């Protein structure tokens, strides 16, 4: 089951600042996500509230059954440490969605407390952001099911962890002079030639 959770004022989609958020309604969002997940045989449970506590209560109530979370926290993305802590405590992956490009709006909207605790974040794509979030989570769940069958994973959480893509290391062209950062388990040599004070850029 994937949770689709929308925060404050998203019940007004379709009538609130349509130049920014578009004309689709919250019902359109829920229908599109449900249709996308249904193709993978995944159930969606949708919830919207203008209250921070109600959002946290809903997520916590379904935390053991949830296999993924699509979350549009609205303005709470920039203010709610409690919601960020709730998401960080989940055993399932979270994709944060914003209809608008929050980095292109007021400066205080560019800092998200939710982004660091989420698997990923999609901004500025309107309703398509929800759709892509649903596809990504369903793809992860499909891979997890295959991995679980192949490796005999003890739980879907373990299988999901194995199915998550590992970070991609981009190859460096030969002769480019660009040093490849060491792998995390490699020892980083100390720079014995470094000296002096450095001013911040």
Kindly describe this structure.
This protein is of the alpha/beta class. It has one domain (2-160): 3-Layer(aba) Sandwich (Rossmann fold), CATH 3.40.50. It contains 6 helices and 5 strands. Strands 2-1-3-4-5 form a 5-stranded parallel sheet, sandwiched between helices. Helix 4 (81-88) links the parallel strand 3 and strand 4 (94-98). The longest helix has 25 residues, at 127-151.
SSE topology:
Layout: E1 2-6, H1 18-21, H2 26-38, E2 44-48, H3 52-61, E3 68-72, H4 81-88, E4 94-98, E5 120-123, H5 127-151, H6 156-163
Parallel strand pairs: 1-2, 1-3, 3-4, 4-5
Roughly what percent helix?
A: 25-40%
Radius of gyration (Å): 20 Å
CATH superfamily: Dehydroquinase, class II
Q: In terms of structural class, how would the helical and strand content be classed?
A: alpha/beta
Number of helices: 6
CATH architecture: 3-Layer(aba) Sandwich
- Cα separation of the termini: 47 Å
**What is the spatial order of strands in the main beta sheet?**
2-1-3-4-5
The CATH topology, please? Rossmann fold
Low-confidence stretches: 167-173, 178-184, 191-201
Kindly report the average pLDDT value.
81
E-strand count? 5
- Major sheet details: 5 strands, parallel
Helix-strand pattern: EHHEHEHEEHH
Percentage of β-strand residues = 5-15%
Give the tally of structural domains: 1
Query: What's the CATH C level?
Result: Alpha Beta
User: Which shape, going by the Cα principal axes?
Assistant: globular
Features:
alpha/beta, Rossmann fold, 5-stranded parallel β-sheet, 6 helices, 5 strands, globular
């Amino acid at each position: 089951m994937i949770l689709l959770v929308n925060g404050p004022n998203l019940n007004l989609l379709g009538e609130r600042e349509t130049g920014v958020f578009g004309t689709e309604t919250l019902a359109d969002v829920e229908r599109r996500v449900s249709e996308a997940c249904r193709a993978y045989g995944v159930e969606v449970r949708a919830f919207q509230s203008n209250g921070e506590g109600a959002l946290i209560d809903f997520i916590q109530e379904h935390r053991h059954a949830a296999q993924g979370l699509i979350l549009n926290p609205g303005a709470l993305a920039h203010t709610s440490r409690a919601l960020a802590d709730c998401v960080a405590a989940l055993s399932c992956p979270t994709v944060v969605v914003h209809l608008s490009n929050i980095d292109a709006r007021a400066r205080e909207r560019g800092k998200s407390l939710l982004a660091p605790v989420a698997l990923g974040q999609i901004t500025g794509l309107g309703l398509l952001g929800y759709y892509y979030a649903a596809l990504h989570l369903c793809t992860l769940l499909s891979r997890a099911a295959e991995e679980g069958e192949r490796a005999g994973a003890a739980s879907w959480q373990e299988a999901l962890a194995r199915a998550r893509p590992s970070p991609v290391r981009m190859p460096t062209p030969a002769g480019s002079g660009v040093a490849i950062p060491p792998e995390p388990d490699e020892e980083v040599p100390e720079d014995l030639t470094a000296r002096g004070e450095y001013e911040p850029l």
